[in-house]
């Protein structure tokens, strides 16, 4: 048994990173997606997509050329197959993380441009949020060539054959020009017709490929001539529309050529040179898209256990060549190189290659901190290693701030032992996890047939020659009478299900039977993941005994150390364990999740350690500390300190003895002064002095009073409640008070304050609209929920101004990737295109480029565009829909009526809260109704009914009456004609009769759950968001200012104190309808009730005193 001792000799960064786009898969028509019936993805394919969390799909693969003409319209609409698949995509997308689809358009038949244009228009109009790419044809030169092939009709229409001839470069170029222009016509027309949609998928053209039978250049390897021959047939508009270039990457080197990876042109298929040449000829840089990749299906001795290391090597190349996206082929199929099992599988059934694919997804996928926004991305590292045995051991290495990931593969047909020296990786390491990917030998039967449990759905046998038959015949288990081992063809040839003879490894000196052999390339063995144990940190090495082609994954978790300098540094951490040293200057440090160490150093610092058990050393200076959730240790240091402990059991350590400090309670906040420190504390459980440690509750008891709640200061405070019923008082300053859950009392005090009763609020405010428009103008997209809430709060509270917010957006990598290295003219032109959806007029272009030349910043220009009347008009409807969709209070009536309509009962409190939150997070209402109707409670009443019985029960249970003849006939006819029961229930639920009959019930239900939050305005211009349930908004005659209530509901209470009203009529007389809002004005107090009708404010909503 060979032994290898490998150690790192060199390592260098490549600047290339793994992205989510690298983990895509092909969704193949009639293979993964049913071609009959419901046209939905097969259960096994759907399960695999879900289990691997895949969000990039390519549809319908190469089948677009010969088995389905996706561009054909039925009665002017997308055909049912396309709609079913895309509806499945929409339904299975997570909020904020949609499944993205690259659609392959056919080129091998002459489909009219008008048909393609109509198809693309409808596809983008209905599913443009999910369609991110349009691939122009599939493998133009690959496949048999028939120079006389009739391209006038799609092979789908031919019942006898699905043959389609490959193409020459000239034929493909001409077809691509037609298809690209048609697609661009659709994109442009949709932009004119519906500018708010802003759907502009990438148009992807194939690289020249002289390897196929159709290529004019087959045999001479001239991909540069092939690229040139394609591009010369594209007109200027089509050339300008190209957003990326496509290649397919199949590994076709046999292990008989070389067991080791040598990186030659054959291994990488010259893809790096081909894309470089393409870009040179195109005259600009476009990214590469690998829309199919895998070990070649016919490369028999690189399959089975040989494939994981091949896929790892291929993946490394794709990352380094900076492929924008990569789609594995196939995810499930009856092929030897399948990833997730046979096409007939009803669940995910990973092959050895599939296990490697999953390993990479689990360990290398980028992950973003929800607290800081930092994304942990893995960089491919170029390394040199000693002791690899001339490539017998292959190592692929990726590094991120928090992890080093190494894949160690034994590329040898003999078992061996590998020792890996980890010392170069352990300086800041905190843990090492080692996993071995090997064969589950109990699954090996020596046959590469992919048979299911019943021996069905097998692959075809592979053809062998006499020399290989002779080699197989010498194996101890070989039986020439077993047709699995040998099938003699009538013409004299041979076929077998056995793997290649060179990959069948004897495990003993004198093997006697099947179990004495290791079938290294048997395609259908089960992978086995074995977690290896050992003191890897202590010994600094991993020792593994490996079978041929085994892979070991080593994941090293480490600390990310960042240091500031003498200036005012802004340092951001993320998901892992951060160590941040601020040193000199007024630093802003935020570390997010993980058990972090934060040292502010000198200067006036803001230290936010986020979630985790953190160690925070404030240092010298006037510092603000947010310890966040977790059991944190905060060392106060010297200077003025504001310390917020947050959730968890937190300890503040002081340098002096207990007697060195004078303690007072100011507005309920504990203040300790002495020994050079003036510290204000909230959310802290323990005080650690030099001579003793004491619980804060005991310390306060000894002072003689215990505060009830959280109190602000004269500064701008942020007070966060928990799940308890709490009292939050802002005092002076511009404060943000967030109650979260619980029945809270929030008191604004002086200043411009935000009072948010629940976790989210402020929908309907000017700040909410400004944030929405800024996201659309800067990023061309709607904000995510967390980002919207954060920036709306920042803007509404005055913590940042609109200019500052837009400047932060403009400085982001997302914005710079589009606008960064542009001239002023190009910058302004892009703004007009992306913000207004039109080209600039001469005067506008001249005006804004002139402003830039005179010193106006790009951020200021973007802010003007975002807040321009034109942009306000373009986004008004979508912005209002965004606020309405994501404001939980907007779903109260719907959820109540849904329970009443479906279950004939009122909701329980938990169900009500859960479903309103689900809908406010973007869930599709129709899918929620479907979930309700699939419940046992609904099915017990309605499940086995006829359409007539179903409608009768709806009338009785929902409308509480017998059906009238007309209504009965209309609804049963609709059901009989194909209308779904979900649609009928939804219609009953939203009917004017049901809405009117339940209006009072909704109010009574909400009030019956009891009073929720009390939000009391103060002097200044305050914004109050109560959230769900029955809230009370309190305004006193002394609360001068202009206040806004964003979400008044019919069950809320408006408390007007000291205004001197004798009755409700007097109070109502001070209210007027102004546009969509109700405005109260009296004695210097103005209150705007956003998006409410004066007629809806009733006397029982008013509390006077």
TrEMBL record:
Coiled coil: none annotated. GO terms for molecular function: calcium ion binding. The keyword Signal does not apply. Signal peptide: none annotated. Keywords: Secreted. InterPro entries: DUF4214, GH, Hemolysin-typ_Ca-bd_CS, Hemolysn_Ca-bd, PBS_linker_sf, RTX_toxin/Mannuronan_C5-epim, Serralysin-like_metalloprot_C. It is found in: Secreted. The keyword Secreted applies. SUPFAM superfamilies: (Trans)glycosidases, beta-Roll. Residues 155-164 have a biased composition (Polar residues). This is Bifunctional hemolysin/adenylate cyclase. It comes from Maliponia aquimaris. The lineage of its organism: Bacteria, Pseudomonadati, Pseudomonadota, Alphaproteobacteria, Rhodobacterales.
